[in-house]
Design a protein that fits this description.
single chain, 77 residues, mainly beta, four-stranded antiparallel β-sheet, 0% helix, globular
């Protein structure tokens, strides 16, 4: 039995590479490269106009092993 760092859905691109996103405030993004045995937090560079804002991530969707879309919501003042 494996655990994930947050209680969100997990999407695997391959049998070893998977992603999860969310958390209580939606600001967490994690990746695994060992079939979920360990998870590493990922950071995303924000556009200059949104630096300092809190992003909200959704689980990415992939077309293939190298190409995908990461939904991110950035609120403006």
């Amino acid at each position: 039995k494996l655990t994930i760092p947050i209680g969100s859905p997990v999407r695997f691109v391959t049998v070893t590479d998977g992603w999860t996103a969310g958390g209580a405030d939606g600001s967490h993004l994690y990746v695994t490269h060992d079939s979920g045995k360990s998870w590493v937090p990922q950071s995303v560079a924000l556009p200059d106009t949104f630096v300092g804002r809190q992003p909200t991530f959704a689980v990415p969707t992939f077309v293939d092993q190298q190409t995908g879309v990461l939904p991110v919501t950035l609120a403006a003042d």
